[in-house]
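Subject: Sanity check before I submit

Could someone independently write out the structure tokens for this chain? I want to compare against mine line by line before I put it in a report. The sequence has 290 residues.
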Amino acid sequence: MNTPAQRPSAWQRFLRFPSTQILLALLMVILPVVVEQLIVTSLPLSRLWKNILLCLLTLPVVYWTYYAYVRYFEKRTLTELSSAGALRELAQGTLVGALLFGGTVGILALLGLFRITGTGSAAVVIIPLAGSMISGFFEEVLFRGILFRIIEQSLGSWLALLISGAIFGALHLLNEHATLIGAVSVMFEAGIMLAAAYMLTRRLWFAIGIHFAWNFTQSGIFGIAVSGNEPMTGILQSTLSGPEWISGGAFGAEASIVAVVLCVALGIYFVYRAGTKGNITQPYWKRTGS
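---
Independent answer below. Compare away.
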């Protein structure tokens, strides 16, 4: 005799809404990080040691809070951050990110817009290294692991690319030297390209490597402002000049049309490769035929 299927509870039905899942996941990851960072920044330590401690604490906090959400609410294995192949994908992403921004700077230098004015000691890279590790991991979990992935499960890959990219770019308007050109540039070059990197591998490590290396090459190597924030002292001291749409202006080279063209081209390639692997997700109404 067949027994009737048990109807899901109101709580279970509530958790099935993508907006609920996104909000819950973001709160579970962001709130502990905020508390941890408030505690660390209040300690009587130098700026250097605060940044080191923030890096050492933020990465595991982000991992374990995201793991808890996936394990106890989505009730699945955290495949997008599994350790198998993680070092290889991180290394590949780091190489791609460094070459991508290095290529951007190289073209700007050929155009006479980027100039090296001096050098710094190797020790100056510690703070931008720590900051780039935090932003690379934290932001990829938030924007690709949570926002893009959950939207994609409902609305499909194409709408998820546009929505998550637009949100990622818009949030960069909150930065100190933010510009509309910079935010739109970030939307296309990072918001879309990094989501495409996730689509290609269906894991976060490759995108994390690209994000980390892109930020660190800017700040730690070339001393260029990252996303409108104050520039840090890098191994190289440099200047950017020329029209904002080419050089990026105070926002940094991320707002340069050169960076946008290179990143969009790479993002298109990632999407194409994802398509050949069958990694494009259709929206729910096409999957259900309704």
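---
OP: Matches mine. For the report I'm noting this point. The first strand starts at residue 114 and ends at 119.
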